[in-house]
Amino acid sequence: MKKILLLFLVSCYNLLSADENYYYSVNLTSVKNDKLLVELTPPTIKETEIEFCFPAMVPGTYEVYDFGKFITNFKVAGKNGATITVVKLDENRYKLSPANLIEKITYEVDDTFDKTGNSSVDKKVVFEPGGSNFEDGKNFSINTHNLFGYFKNYIKANFVLEFTKPKGFYPSTGLSNLKIGESKDVITVFNYNDLVDSPIMYTMPDTTSIQVANTQVLVSVYSPNKKINSKFIANTLTELLDVQRKYLGGTLPVNKYAFLFYFTSKATLSGASGALEHSYSSFYVLYEDDSTAIKQEIRDVAAHEFFHIVTPLNIHATQIGEFDFNNPTMSEHLWLYEGMTEYAAHHAQCKGGLTTVDDLLNTMMEKYNNSLVAFNDTMSFTWMSKNVLIEKVHGQYSNVYEKGAVIGMCLDILLRELSSGKYGTQELMKDLSLKYGKNKSFNDADLFKEIEQMTYPEVGEFLRRHVGGKQPLPMKEILSKIGVEFIKEAKSKEITMGGVDYGFNQATLRLVVYNTRQMDEFGKKLKFKEGDEISKVNGKVVDMNSIKEVFTNYYNQTKEGDLVTFEVERPKRRKGKYKTKTLQAIAMKVDVVQKNKIKVLDQLTDKQKLTLKSWAGL
Q: Any residues with CB less than 8 A from the CB of 431 and at least 6 apart, and which?
């Protein structure tokens, strides 16, 4: 038996040592100035001249970050002392010759969590879930596209990664081909697309594994102050994942999945938190808080990222299936990849009983209102998607999570009404997955026509007018199908917080009054000024962790005639200096114009009842 095992191991080693493989090595025990040294023994190169590339962009980010700007000390050694000429073509590409004599490439990689790279021009901050973090002896959150480059036209080779690691560290990842040792690990990935699709988090292990139907799910957590652990998140996600399993028809399209959570106790460089999806994992950068305070946030974000196993993993256009890392072109259908995913994340929770129909409707209406206030409602969604990398268009991208989700709701309700409750977006996404799948792409221009052929002419018309076209969503018509009245504008008297617009000061981590143009009578009595930073409301501290609770309590508990107290930090003329001011006024109801409100009708027709029941899972 020992002899057979030895022969088997030798045979496997020879297979991996075939010279068509990339051999990368990274030493996580040697971090210098927040940089890691990366060494590459390349596959055999036949050309005499070749380009070595780092990605300009990767799938899921919808932003050109130019990851080559985080690379320094790029050096190439030749076989038998041969000199290799290196010409830097741009931020991400190097021309090497003679390429067939390359023996080794070495370079240093900067992390992205606290730096914007080495470019003197581009200081764009990488959204943390799409970047990498090197904390010596604590945590290495590695998005592989940040560390590993590729030779042009050689992306289908095997990538063998050797990590030298601190004692006790564990590599959490969605990858399956791992050889874990005491001081070194070897991870093998079968092409560059899969490599880029696979983040790895090295830290002292805090992991929990759960089984959801056919899928083994790993939850890995790094929480610097130990406020949150993997067991809590696993328990939080177990019910959600079971709901999502049922939503997808009883099974999941992956056998292994990893949730990688990095929690931070300080503000991020980008000023944001969130996650980035991958086919077999998702990577989260969230603010460290008391676990119960962010339970629903974790559910909502995780639900969205996990549903990406449907799209774009199993439903995607050619632009994604054949992604060009250095000259990317965008697909027209962000409404499908992000909008439908965001909608399904909330819809599944409602149908599974984790939230209510009222919660779902309120969430969708909030998204609808956000889309009208913050984005261009007459811009074609497909045109925006295709041109999202253009600077003047990119500001519209976040609308995929607002109007994109509402598009999903409208399409779902329309389908259920037309099919008498038998067919919705759940079934549509399943049918599209069966038609295409991971290894087959659709053509952008054909998608609407194909969906129409699979469903109804009215669905094709809806997509062409309201997604491909510039016509606003027919909210009144759609919502009436489930017995909900859509009210474009209504007046009422309400308790307010002054009618001012609030922003957020990243430096002080406080809410700031940035606009008083629409300040109401109550706000005028309080005497808010632009620049005021809210520190307390009725004696309750307002910070990143308490803001939601404080505001909810204010609206729920404040009555006319109550004395309301706002403590603000008012900026002095000297930059960075503040004076504490106490603002007080008697609470009063003021005239408020409410737009885009909804009300469930008292009497529903049989058709409306059927559509509502099918849509909400009642």
A: 454
